[in-house]
Amino acid sequence: MEKIGLRELKNRLSHYVRRVRTGHPIQVTDRGEVVAELLPPARSVASDNTRQRLAEMARRGLVRLGAPNDRRLYRRLPRLVPAGTVKRLLDEERGER
Questions:
Q1: Which CATH architecture has domain 2-38?
Q2: Looking at the whole model, is its pTM more than 0.85?
Q3: Cβ contact 57:63 at 8 Å
Q4: Domain spans of the chain?
């Protein structure tokens, strides 16, 4: 993996971004110490494929899938203060600005 100094990266950022885009990872150093790595973005995985992979891992005992969400948890909570109260209090606090 190519190593470059922080100053060099700053001066030639476009060049190094093009290199990373073509698949060449780069380590960034500051005073000789590696402080960051520039890597091409990971390819996204389709959600169906993710579900299939999770199901396979669960079958193999590597993960345990959570229970489905309980729809009753999504009920609307009652209002604690009348509508507009928060806006009125904020306007009072801010005063004339």
A1: 3-Layer(aba) Sandwich (3.40)
A2: no
A3: yes
A4: 2-38
